[in-house]
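Changelog-adjacent note: as of this version, every example in the card shows the full chain rather than a window. The one below runs 378 residues end to end.
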Amino acid sequence: MPKNNKLLSLLSKYLRLEETSNDRKEIYDWYEQLSGDHNADLSADNIKKSRLRVRKRLFNEMGFAQQDPIYKKLYPIIGVAALLAVAIGFVLFSLKETPLNTTALNGIKPVNEKTELTLPNGHLLASNTMKVGRAIAIGNGMFIRKDSTGLLILSGKPGNASIKQISLQTPASSQCRIQLTDGTRIAVNSSSRLVFPIAFDNGDRHVELFGEAFFEVQKTQQHSRFFVKTDHQTITVLGTKFNVSMTGKSSVKTTLMEGSVRITPVDKNFDPVVIKPNQQAFLKNNKLSVSNVDAAAISRWKDGYFVFDGENTTETISRIGAWYGLSVEGTDKISQISFTGKIPQDISLGQLIELLHYSGINLKVSRNAFNKYVLIIQ
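Full-length structure tokens:
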């Protein structure tokens, strides 16, 4: 722990927003130790005052604000500093106000189940069994390999046989990234399924989506069109970045980051709609609307965050439960509360519960008769 003069200097820099990343780490380390260190070099009064000021800065740094209970915001959490803030600020201060078993909750991590690919011959291939850099033959002259970042890459020269389909299914607790033979990259969110050909020919390119995915469509020399089909619409693109999310049995959101896409509802009573970057087309109950949005924020799930879009809080909480291997009870209690923002997916369940608690959602975890964890919304 920093000594008197050094600590005071660090705190002074921190409160003036002039600290370096190393300074910040030392302050967080010191701050964490204060909960159990009774031999600090500063007086108790100074420690108390410093802790309060540091805590206030931590919360300001994360952008949290307690607002009207009908509408709250979870502002962006950025980088290592924010993760440390979650671990320090909420654990040291909020835990004392809740009856949670913190040690047990902090031990609950994401389940991290495997993504499975159903190959044209019907065989299953689990992504977690693939060795980095090793090409696996999947038929018709095609191969698939996994690079050091976890990206699955299709390659090869397909034979003359008819093009077969591959189905990629992600579980409730993991995501998957894949690069198709045309260079298009797709991030597939949890609990989603993507169906695509083992290889593309020179004509139009077609894939089918159930769930949520982010597309970075590669332009081809032939300028062939790329189609994404869902249950309720078809998206037509040339080269672009966009997010598609099926948010319910009868609704789908298409959010454009770059380029241009045309959305054609299955219902022939609606004309196709073209959206521009930072616009979102929302098809629900056969009604299609377009609004301006922050496309980058909506697609941050692919960067490792749970995303609250202000309208699907219940769905996001259910996805969080599945991510940690929990069933969820009481989702009807938050149907009137709207949240926007993001929460890191790699923190412990204890940290996540404290984060939501501060923002107005009170959760607890218990075991049921089958010795399974249940996430209960109070």
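Structural remarks: The CA atoms of residues 233 and 265 lie 4 Å apart.
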